[in-house]
């Protein structure tokens, strides 16, 4: 009996030890916990957590790596899994050898998420959880290797060149790295598109298809990959039209043929306010019209708000300013409330770079288009710096 009792106790102790080693921490409902274990990543590295909506992100929290570990714990009110991203970029780790990249991490109520990595390349880090969306994410992530690891290594070299003197030699080195990355991306995208022919439909599938459609239908047509992108369009019949990215994808599949240049007659299109009412640019016929293409998460877009408000007031009798949000309806509402954006603010039916954004060659934001009272495109330009809008209006409005 004594021996048996000893054996039972020892067995129980062993069981408890194994249980503590193999079981994940319990996370209460209404919270999530992310824990990272890293090797070959120096202590004091800053890791950021970002909430992802569409193609943009917003910082949520930061942690510092200590003894190879970092963690994020927060509340979550939604019953649906939420898409997040982990980033350790040069922005807050200058000169430490990190690439310009991020790792997608899904969180959900009551879930424990484990991140493991053995280098600084971020997208090579593995994410484990019981969230189905993460499984799809991991499948697509692994499809990218081994080329993605090489791509990330080139990105590290590019980040170092950004901090180096801007000599002609360094510019050429950067360009060469960019060309190498483009070749690797093409290999990765070809493999991804082939997989997507029969892959299970998921939010990750839609995100990838949206990104690839934008790239190969809107920006860089490719003799092999563009037809492959179009060949997947039939799978959109499997998708709920209310799903994220659905309208944006359809916009890329049905891009307008007309492209407007300076001196051309303006092109109009359907635009919608926050209440869903339909509007057209022709409502301002007889006035100058300044189009301001923007989206949530665009720092220069937000920086321009005070000056754009001044310009709107200064020329209110002669010019109408029309903000065109390229994001989702939700993003537009949040941004307008958060930054107290005033004036005429409309959006296209589909978010992204299709529709009027394609017509007016919007490749980056903020993008501005000034149209004359006669309906001619006077000037198109991209980017904002303090005082630039006032200078443009002084130069162009007669």
TrEMBL record:
It is found in: Cell envelope. Keywords: Cytochrome c-type biogenesis, Disulfide bond, Redox-active center. It comes from Parabacteroides faecalis. It comes from the Bacteria. Residues 260-398 form the Thioredoxin domain. PANTHER family: THIOL:DISULFIDE INTERCHANGE PROTEIN DSBE. Transmembrane segments: none annotated. Its main location: other. It holds the Pfam family Redoxin. SUPFAM superfamilies: Thioredoxin-like. This is AhpC/TSA family protein. The lineage of its organism: Bacteria, Pseudomonadati, Bacteroidota, Bacteroidia, Bacteroidales.
């Amino acid at each position: 009996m004594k021996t048996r009792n000893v054996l039972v106790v020892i067995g129980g102790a062993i069981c408890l030890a194994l249980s503590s080693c193999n079981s994940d921490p319990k996370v209460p409902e209404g919270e999530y916990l992310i824990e990272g274990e890293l090797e070959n990543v120096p202590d004091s590295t800053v890791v950021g957590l970002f909430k992802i909506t569409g193609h943009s992100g917003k910082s949520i929290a930061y942690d510092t790596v200590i003894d190879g570990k970092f963690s994020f714990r927060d509340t979550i009110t939604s019953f649906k899994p939420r898409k997040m991203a982990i980033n350790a970029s040069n922005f807050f780790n200058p000169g430490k050898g990190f690439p310009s990249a991020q790792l997608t991490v899904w969180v959900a109520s009551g879930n424990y998420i484990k991140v493991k990595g053995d280098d600084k390349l971020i997208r090579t880090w593995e994410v484990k959880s019981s969230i189905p969306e993460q499984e799809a994410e991991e499948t697509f992530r692994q499809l990218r290797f081994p080329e993605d690891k090489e791509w990330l290594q080139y990105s590290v070299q590019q980040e170092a060149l950004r901090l180096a003197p801007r000599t002609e030699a360094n510019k050429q080195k950067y360009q060469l790295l960019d060309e190498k990355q483009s070749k690797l991306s093409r290999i990765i995208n070809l493999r991804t598109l082939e997989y997507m022919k029969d892959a299970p439909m998921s939010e990750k599938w839609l995100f990838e298809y949206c990104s690839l459609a934008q790239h190969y239908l809107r920006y860089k047509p490719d003799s092999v990959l563009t037809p492959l992108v179009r060949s997947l369009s039939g799978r959109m019949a499997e998708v709920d039209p209310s799903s994220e990215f659905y309208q944006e994808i359809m916009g890329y599949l049905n891009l307008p043929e007309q492209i407007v240049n300076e001196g051309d007659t303006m092109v109009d299109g359907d635009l919608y306010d926050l209440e869903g009412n339909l509007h057209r640019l022709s409502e301002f016929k007889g006035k100058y019209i300044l189009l301001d293409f923007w989206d949530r998460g665009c720092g220069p877009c937000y920086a321009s708000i005070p000056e754009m408000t001044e310009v709107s007031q200064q020329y209110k009798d002669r010019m109408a300013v029309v903000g065109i949000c390229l994001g989702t309806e939700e993003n537009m509402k949040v941004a307008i409330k958060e930054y107290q954006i005033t004036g005429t603010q409309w959006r296209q039916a589909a978010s992204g770079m299709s529709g009027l954004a394609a017509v007016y060659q919007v490749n980056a934001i903020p993008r501005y288009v000034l149209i004359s009272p006669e309906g001619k495109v006077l000037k198109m330009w991209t980017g904002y710096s303090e005082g630039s809008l006032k200078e443009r209006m002084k130069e162009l409005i007669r």
